[in-house]
Design goal:
Pfam families: MoCF_biosynth, MoeA_C, MoeA_N. Belongs to the MoeA family. This protein has 7 helices and 27 strands. The chain is of the alpha+beta class and 392 residues long. A hairpin with a 2-residue loop joins strand 8 and strand 9. The longest helix is centred in the C-terminal third of the chain and has 19 residues.
C-alpha cells in the first residue's frame, strides 16, 4: 500500500501523452488541442467593414453631404463616392473603397437626401480595415491551442471546415458483478441496479471525452480474462469498476496479472478508495476502481482525471485546490487520509452527512472534497481546511 502522494506521482510518471493526430469538423472540435498550426485562408475581415450603423462618407470640407445610396450587411455593391457623397451603411457591411470614414447615425441630422454632421470626423473612423484581425497566410492559431467555443467561432469565421487535432483517448468502462442489473430490469432479491458505468460515463462526458464504450463482465474468471484482453488491446484507457478486492469472486486482479498488465500500484492509503489499481500494458492505461460508487468516483477525480490530462498532453493535471473555512465539525476514524464530500461556496465549505464509500446521495450534491491528511483527527467549525474543487 502506497501513499496518495506516491500514487499521484506514479500516475503522472507512467501516463504518456497520446500525441496522435486526427481530423475533426470544426463544430465537433471543442475541447481538443490543435495538432498543427492553422494559417488563415482569407483576410479577416475580407473587406473594409463598417463597425456600426451610420453613414459612409467621402470626406470634404463641409459638414453637409449628399446621400446617394444604401449598403446593408451582405450587399455586394461597389459604389463610387465623389467628395461630399455619403451612403447609408449598417454594421458589418462593406465600406466602399472611395469612402474615408463612417459616422454613427446618432451624430447626423437627416433631411431627405441631405445629411448634416454634428462635427467633423477623422479619416478611417469606424472602419475595420481589411485583414485587421488576421491576413491571408498569417498564423490564425498556433499548434497546441485548446479549442474553446471562441476559438471554434473564430476558425469558422475564416471558413475553415476541418482541423487537425490531438486525438483524445478511447476509453472502455468495464463493470463487474453478478448482482448488477440494468435499470429497465425489475429487481430480484439480492440484485442492485448498476450505476457506476453511467456515473463514470457522465464524468467523462462532462470533461469532453466522448469516445467511450461500456462492457459488462460476469463473475467468471475465463470471461474476465477474455473481455479484459479485448478492451486492453483496443482502447487507450480502461476503467474497471469492482472486482479488484480479494474476495472469492473478485477476478480482476488475477486476470490483469495473467494478461501481463504491469502493476504500478495496488492499494492506496486513503479513505474512501483503498483498493485502487493502476497499471499499463503497451500503450494502454488501466485503472481498476473500487466497486463502491463514492469510492470509485473519488478515485476517478483524484487519479483518472490526472491520467486524462496527461494523455492529452495538458500542462495542468490536477483539480484546483484552495483553503476554505469549515462550517462543520468532523471526527475522523482511523489513521488513513480521507476525502470528505462537501459543498464549497465562496470561501466556506460544509461537510456533508453520509461519508460512506457506498453513499451516492451525498456525492450527488457535493462540489468539493475536504482533504484530511493522516495527522488530522478532527475538524472544528472555523478551521481552515484543504479543499479540492470538483468539475461539476
Amino acid at each position: 500500500m502506497i501513499s496518495i502522494e506516491e500514487a499521484i506521482i506514479l500516475v503522472k510518471k507512467e501516463t504518456k501523452p497520446l500525441l496522435t493526430e486526427t481530423t475533426k469538423p470544426v463544430e465537433k472540435a471543442g475541447g481538443y488541442k490543435l495538432f498543427k498550426a492553422v494559417l488563415s485562408p482569407i483576410n479577416m475581415p475580407p473587406f473594409r467593414q463598417s463597425a456600426m450603423d451610420g453613414y459612409a462618407l467621402h470626406l470634404h470640407d463641409s459638414l453637409v453631404y449628399n446621400l446617394i445610396d444604401e449598403i446593408k450587411a451582405g450587399d455586394n455593391k461597389q459604389l463610387t463616392l465623389k467628395k461630399g457623397d455619403a451612403v447609408r451603411i449598417f454594421t458589418g457591411a462593406a465600406v466602399p473603397n472611395t469612402a474615408d470614414a463612417v459616422i454613427m447615425q446618432e451624430k447626423v441630422e437627416v433631411n431627405g437626401n441631405i445629411i448634416t454632421l454634428q462635427n467633423k470626423i477623422n479619416k478611417n473612423t469606424n472602419i475595420r480595415p481589411e485583414g485587421e484581425q488576421v491576413k491571408k497566410g498569417e498564423l490564425a492559431l498556433a499548434k497546441g491551442t485548446k479549442l474553446t467555443p471562441a476559438a471554434i467561432g473564430y476558425l469558422s469565421s475564416l471558413g475553415i471546415k476541418n482541423v487537425s487535432v490531438f486525438k483524445k483517448p478511447s476509453i472502455a468502462i468495464v463493470t463487474t458483478g453478478n448482482e448488477l442489473v440494468k435499470a429497465e430490469t425489475e429487481l430480484e432479491y439480492g440484485q442492485i441496479y448498476e450505476s457506476n458505468s453511467k456515473m463514470l460515463l457522465s464524468a467523462l462526458y462532462s470533461l469532453k471525452f466522448y469516445d467511450v464504450s461500456i462492457h459488462k463482465i460476469e463473475d467468471d474468471y475465463i470471461e474476465t480474462v477474455s473481455k479484459l484482453n479485448n478492451v486492453i488491446n483496443s482502447t487507450d484507457l480502461v476503467l474497471i469498476s469492482g472486482g479488484i478486492s480479494v474476495g472469492d469472486y473478485d477476478f480482476v486482479g488475477k486476470a490483469l496479472t495473467e494478461l501481463k498488465v504491469k502493476e504500478h500500484f495496488y492499494k492506496v492509503k486513503q479513505k474512501p478508495g483503498k483498493p485502487l489499481f493502476f497499471g499499463t500494458k503497451n500503450n494502454t492505461h488501466v485503472f481498476a476502481l473500487p466497486g463502491n460508487p463514492a469510492a470509485a468516483l473519488t478515485c476517478f477525480y483524484m487519479y483518472v482525471y490526472i491520467a486524462l490530462q496527461k494523455l492529452m498532453d495538458n500542462t495542468v493535471f490536477e483539480l484546483p485546490k484552495t483553503k476554505a473555512t469549515s462550517s462543520s465539525k468532523f471526527i475522523k476514524s482511523g489513521d488513513r487520509p480521507q476525502f470528505l464530500k462537501a459543498i464549497y461556496d465562496n470561501g466556506n465549505v460544509q461537510i456533508l452527512e453520509g461519508q460512506s464509500s457506498a453513499m451516492q446521495q451525498t456525492f450527488a450534491v457535493a462540489n468539493a472534497f475536504i482533504f484530511m491528511d493522516e495527522t488530522q483527527s478532527n475538524i472544528e467549525i472555523g478551521d481552515l481546511v484543504d479543499t479540492i474543487l470538483l468539475p461539476v
